[in-house]
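Troubleshooting: if your tokenizer reports a length mismatch, compare against these two reference records.
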Amino acid sequence: MAVLYYVVYSLGHLQGASFFLSRKHGRSRFIGLFKRPVAWKVLHALIGCIMWYIAYGLYKEIRFS
């Protein structure tokens, strides 16, 4: 059972490391795109939609359980 914990911990560590590596690589690729204010507005709208979707899912879970 302890081996499973080490495997899960290692996978989580690799996921975190790959996340930050991809952010560094993505920043250099999208720096030209995000110089425009419209790109930031679209990004904020997408994030807002995702947050509303999560809130609705939580509300539905609490309301109907």
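Reference record two:
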Amino acid sequence: MEIQIRTAFEDVWGEIEHGLKYKPKGPAVDEDEEELQRSTITPHLNVLATLIDGMAQYSDQIKIQIDSPKERRVRSIRSRLAEKPLERLIGTDGIPVELMELVRDAVGHSRMCFDEAAQTDYPMARHVAAKRRASDDLATVASRVRQSTDVEEDKKREVLYVLDMERALLLFEYGNGLAGRSGNGALVEASRIYSRVESEFPNRGAVQYRLAKVLDALGDSKAAQYKLEQLVANMDKTDLHSSHWVRAAARRYLGVLYWEEGRQGGVANDGPEETGWPAESRELFGKAYAITKPILKMSVEGAADPNETQGISESEKAVNNLLYYAVELLMGEAEEHDIAEYHYVKGDLRVYLTSMEASTSPAAEDFRHLDTLRRAYKLLRDRQKARSVTEALIEALKQKGILDRPGGGREEEILHAALATIAWCEEED
């Protein structure tokens, strides 16, 4: 029940004021008597008017206090979303206000989880629990939308698209953070959602890109490769505008998958420096280089997807990867002209190095960025720069706790290669 306090006060005063200004018709009243009556009543009416005005203003403050948290929440949600997940719903009227609020709140809760994920001091269990709750909220709201008879079918499909995409992304995120059956179950559910959404919206590139990432996380890198190859080949047939970040990210991710396949076989981080890679591996590194290089000529937006690295442009990520692939291709006796078939131009290696050295973005302090520089300087036999960047790399790994944490994995592999580089720097030619 809503009590209209201010309106009631104003109505009372309006009636009193009307009675004073517009006297009712009736028997004539002596003017002296009327003036006496007015002079007696007016002070009381002034007090009453002040009281009513004060109470009306106070009721406004009550309303502000009631509405403020809701308004702050909506502003916060819209700010966090930057209209990206819900931009397809802009201009689609006819959706009940209450239902739309539920949709915005559920997606806003989801985005807050991604913001919290950036807080590395939070325990993993907290991140997973929050994302699981947000995923359940999205599923509940999606069920409400499906059951609604007040929304046109085309608008309902768009709302469900937003909710399904957010839920699948949450499942992917916390599925990646969990080991064993629980994590795998979340990833499988994410793949099912993306597959269903893809069948309903076959031309939406973001769905195909995210599905490829889930397939890779499930260990099916070949299926992920195929999905990305199809997306890259048919990019202009999708709904992605010319500057959409997925246009670059899909190429970059496909390049990484080619590179990972080329390195299969357990070779150490620096690879076979003297002999170079086998022909099959070199072919895959070449494909990685060729698919990634066009990104440098793209003008794309920064990633809006919370799953993507923020603050680092797609061009910077591409430069890092291209330098890495070039180093792989130039190992052994290979010369720059030997890899021209992969769109490598003589001098590319130095161009990438110069670009990375001048970088002031967050990537400059990332251990993967530093490891790429280390490998390039070692390939160029520049011991002084190799030592400087390797020391920075070891410090970055130390900050991540790699020096104190036993076990395998990519980070420890990089650490061993870094220590070997320090030893190499101390040798004499």
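Descriptive notes for reference record two:
- The chain has three domains: 71-201, 211-304+312-357, 366-429.
- Residues 71-201 form one domain.
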